[in-house]
Amino acid sequence: TNTYLFTEYQLANFAQTGERVWHARYDYDFASLGIPGLLFSTRYAKGDNAKVIGFNGEGREWERDLSLGYVVQNGTFKDVSLRWQNASATSNFARDTNENRVILGYTVALW
């Protein structure tokens, strides 16, 4: 289920009752270093004060996401993208999780 929260990350959505969340994000475009199409992003979120059904105590969680992607700039495969995403999440009320994704993308104009 999508919640469309600004705190919706790859593994967690930080939407527990009463949860306080802070987060930070950093993006870098390598075009300024002469590598157009190469992009890096990292995000971190930390939540506390969560009231979780079935858990006795204050719920706390954090997640760190990394993304490294490249979009081909010209040639036969122009606009084809390849992205690696890694996420690590830790919580005192749910199982810790680590996940890797590799995403191949291509946009097709319909009209």
Topology:
Blueprint: E1 20-29, E2 38-50, E3 59-71, E4 81-91, E5 97-105
Description:
The structure is a single chain. This protein is mainly β. It has one domain. It is 0% helix and 50% strand. It has strands at 20-29, 38-50, 59-71, 81-91, 97-105. A five-stranded antiparallel sheet has the order 1-2-3-4-5, with no helix packed on it. The radius of gyration is 18 Å and the shape is elongated.
Summarize the structure.
The protein contains no helices and five strands.
The SSE string, one letter per element, is EEEEE
- The domain count comes to 1
Query: What's the number of helices?
Result: 0
Helix content: under 10%
Keywords:
111 residues, mainly beta, 0% helix, elongated
